[in-house]
Amino acid sequence: MKNPTIDNAAGGGAAVRGRRARLTSAAVAFAFWTTMAGTTMPTPLYPLYGEAFGFSPFTVTVIFAVYALGVVAGLLVFGRLSDQIGRRPTLMIAAALSVAAAAIFFVTQNVAMLLFARVVSGLSAALVTGAATAALAELIAPNSRVRPATVALFANMGGLACGTLLAGVLADLAPAPLRTPWVVIGVLAVLALLGVTTIRESAAHRSGFTMQLQPLHIPGEIRADFLRSAFTAGAGFAVLGVLTAVTGLFLGALLHQSSHSLTGLVVFIAFACTALGQLLNRALKAAVALPAACLGLIMAAGLIAVALASASLVPLLVGAAVNGLSTGIAIGYGIASITTRSVPQFRGASVSTFFAILYTMLAVPALGVGVLIHVSSLRPAGEIFSAVVAALALTVLFSLVLTRKAR
Predict the structure, then answer these.
(1) Residues 63-90, mean pLDDT to the nearest whole number
(2) Which residue has the higher pLDDT, 168 or 204?
(3) In percent, how much of the chain has pLDDT > 70?
(4) In this predicted structure, what is the pLDDT of residue 45?
(5) pLDDT top residue among 141 and 230
(6) pLDDT of residue 213
(7) SS3 sequence, 174-232?
(8) Does residue 9 carry a pLDDT above 80?
């Protein structure tokens, strides 16, 4: 015969554990969102920094590229940190770095401090991405209505999208446009830090800290698909990088628009659509996903070239959206291929390699565009860049067609 008192106690205990898990997951997701938002806060502020410190558009691309290279370095050196010391301490370090980056931006007086702040910001992004994604997978039950991967996706891309829009709105409406955004994101980062200090550790096993580079690994069993998806997503990331670095310059120089909110909106659309593209990938057949992404990137490159040639805002907005969707589809396809078709013991290294390629392609083309702007002007630099992106996507598309014909 069942004891109702014991049953009620067990049910109450399960409810408390469920509520605690939801609060813990929310704290992790908030820290993830806040850290990623902090990394895109400078985007609409670059024109203001250029006026304050007297630097050129090329310097803007250098400042942006330093962030992306900081992410790559963080992935390679500290990619396994949360496996070694635990999710909670790694999230605390990431949130603390986010607070530090906001503080450095708040007091910055020159380009050197901007560069240092971007490196710190890049390291915070590298640390939080792996730790928060793993923690959410461990904290959210497999039978939950919301999948851990979906929460991680919206915390990651949602933070990237919202950070630039938030900074743009604050720069337009609030006093001290180079100070107020950093006060707001600094307060949010402090709250995130306090939140993750209260959560329980979710990693069952920790190996202990060892200082070593994360080995890069391209899975041989899916080498062709890995490289095609990485270069397709990388082409989209290159566009995201250039949009993040020079949208403010485009709006100011060609459209004579001084709205920082509008700059933030363009980049918000690009990153938000990247998240939607990853969700859309789940509904596409594997044989369709990568060709669709390539065609989308070619279309987006054409739209951005038209926006530059005609000094028009609408093609830029549509191009940002199409590029984001295509990039998200390519990312989703690549991650799905790695996690379902590669050797399990090398999946972590393969995912790190995938994102190292993406963030490298986020940084290097932005530098190239900066050089082209320096030697010519924005319009031809953007048109050449658009042609290169379209050519890369077209190359991957031809490779897919030739492979299927061979089969």
Answers:
(1) 86
(2) 168
(3) 91
(4) 94
(5) 230
(6) 72
(7) CCCCCCHHHHHHHHHHHHHHHHHHCCCCCCCCCCCCCCCCCCCCCCHHHHHHHHHHHHH
(8) no
Residues 6 or more apart from 212 whose CB is under 8 A from it?
none
Query: What is the reported pTM?
Result: 0.88
Residue 325's Cβ-count burial label (10 Å; 0-12, 13-18, 19+) is buried
Select the highest-mean-pLDDT range: 3-17, 301-315, 325-339, 347-361.
301-315
Cβ pair 132, 31 in contact under 8 A: yes
Residue corresponding to tokens 């490196």 = 119
In the predicted model, what is the mean pLDDT of residues 185-199?
95
Write the secondary structure of the chain as one string of H (helix), E (strand) and C (coil).
Answer: CCCHHHHHHHHHHHHHHHHHHHHHHHHHHHHHHHHHHHHHCCHHHHHHHHHHHCCCHHHHHHHHHHHHHHHHHHHHHHCCHHHHHCHHHHHHHHHHHHHHHHHHHHHCCCHHHHHHHHHHHHHHHHHHHHHHHHHHHHHCCCCCCCCHHHHHHHHHHHHHHHHHHHHHHHHHHCCCCCCHHHHHHHHHHHHHHHHHHCCCCCCCCCCCCCCCCCCCCCCHHHHHHHHHHHHHHHHHHHHHHHHHHHHHHHHHHCCCCCCHHHHHHHHHHHHHHHHHHHHHHCCCCHHHHHHHHHHHHHHHHHHHHHHHHHCCHHHHHHHHHHHHHHHHHHHHHHHHHHHHHCCHHHHHHHHHHHHHHHHHHHHHHHHHHHHHHHHCCHHHHHHHHHHHHHHHHHHHHHHHHHHHHHC
Burial of 208 (0-12, 13-18, 19+ CB in 10 A): exposed
Whether 134 shows a pLDDT value over 80: the answer reads yes
